[in-house]
Design brief:
There is one protein chain. The protein is α/β, with parallel strands linked by helices and 367 residues long. The strands form two sheets. The chain has a six-stranded mixed sheet, covered by helices on one side. The protein starts with a helix and ends with a strand.
């Protein structure tokens, strides 16, 4: 269902750009139509590449991402301009000048946005104050890598640098709450190899996101197990940290309702867990059902999926589509939830503006 909706949305964006920037230009009809078709194709480049199994070099993929992002930025700039015209009146500006300035601005914003999205993210350490935290857990550090999206744009060399930065931070535990990949296992067989170097004293834990389901969640979970990760699929594990008991649970993803795979089941995930653990950590890709998770005694819910909205003005829209959560810290009952901006970016919308990617290290501290 997502792909048809995304395609329809991108086609509407392309049509809007065509009407506002191309149609008013003094060009031959054939040229206008050709440019319009080009805009539609750029807006839907991911779908076209998948339908026709088109492969391209890294340079062409980067160029396509930049032009695709420029179409999105052109639509956003046109929308801002049109709202301004309605409020303040339409200035005296020729269609050629308007289209030229918008196109230039879109190309510059897109270049910056794509560069921001594809950078190797920095490590950002945050302190989490926890009431009644066991003394043994004070200073315990959890690295969070969500929405890595290894795929057409983010390949092995980039993954190696992400792994290097994560290991350099020396976390006690590494949590991977879904969307590690963005292509079939056969395509990424070499690109995911660096993930096998992820190691931490108390383990590397993974729960699946919706993108793993697209390419076969069972196969990807087997691949991640081979890389040394502990896969939590409506399951939990219990670790001992110098005498303190920590329960780590992980959920399946909601997309299991329409694709092969399980759906989230917090009760199944916690079945048999210690009733009096010292800390309860949950990996669940989407920031949904937070109130239910809080009722089940979860202390910290780690989520992703939203990418923080990717474009700052769209955070409110992102939150409305994700149970009111866009990115950052939230308090739900006695539970804290952290929704990560993500490490990588989906190739379908390959840009970030005002919402940086990051590798987060959460340090537990006594309140």
């Amino acid at each position: 269902m997502f792909i048809p909706l995304f395609t329809a949305s991108m086609s509407v964006v392309a049509l809007y750009v065509y009407i506002r920037l191309i149609l008013p230009l003094p060009l031959p009809v054939v040229v206008e139509i050709a440019m319009g078709i080009g805009v539609v194709l750029l807006a839907n480049r991911v779908l076209i590449m998948r339908l026709f199994h088109i492969t391209a070099s890294d340079a062409l993929l980067l160029l396509g991402s930049w032009l695709h992002a420029a179409v999105l930025m052109a639509a956003l700039l046109c929308l801002v301009a049109d709202v301004g015209f309605l409020i303040f009146g339409h200035p005296e500006i020729s269609p050629v000048a308007f289209s030229g300035w918008v196109a230039l601005g879109a190309l510059i914003l897109a270049a910056y946005g794509v560069r921001s999205a594809l950078r190797v993210p920095p490590v950002r350490e945050m302190a989490l104050k926890v009431a009644n935290l066991a003394p043994q857990l004070r200073g315990f550090r959890i690295a969070v890598l969500t929405d890595v999206h290894v795929g057409p744009l983010l390949r092995r060399r980039w993954v190696e640098r992400v792994v290097d930065r994560t290991l350099a931070a020396e976390p006690d535990l590494i949590a991977l709450p879904g969307d590690l990949v963005d292509s079939p296992e056969t395509v990424l067989v070499k690109d995911i190899v660096p993930l096998g170097r992820l190691r931490a004293p108390y383990g590397v834990y993974y729960s699946p996101g919706n993108h793993e389901y697209i390419y076969g969640v069972e196969g990807w979970m087997r691949a991640f197990r081979r890389l040394g990760m502990k896969v939590l699929y409506n399951q939990h594990d219990v670790i001992d940290v110098n005498g303190a008991t920590v329960t780590i649970a992980g959920l399946a993803d909601q997309v299991g309702a329409i694709r092969p795979g399980a759906t989230p089941d917090i009760d199944a995930a916690l079945a048999g867990a210690p009733e009096r653990d010292d800390f309860r950590l949950l990996l669940a890709h989407r920031p949904y059902d937070a109130a239910i998770h809080a009722e089940r005694g979860v202390d910290l819910h780690l989520a992703g999926h939203t990418h923080g909205g990717q474009i700052w003005p769209l955070r409110a829209l992102t939150a409305s589509a994700n149970a009111g959560y866009a990115g950052g810290w939230y308090t739900v009952g006695e539970m804290r939830m952290f929704v990560s901006n993500g490490v990588g970016v989906w190739a379908g919308v390959p840009l970030r503006l005002g919402v940086p990617n990051h590798i987060v290290v959460i340090r537990l501290e006594a309140a």
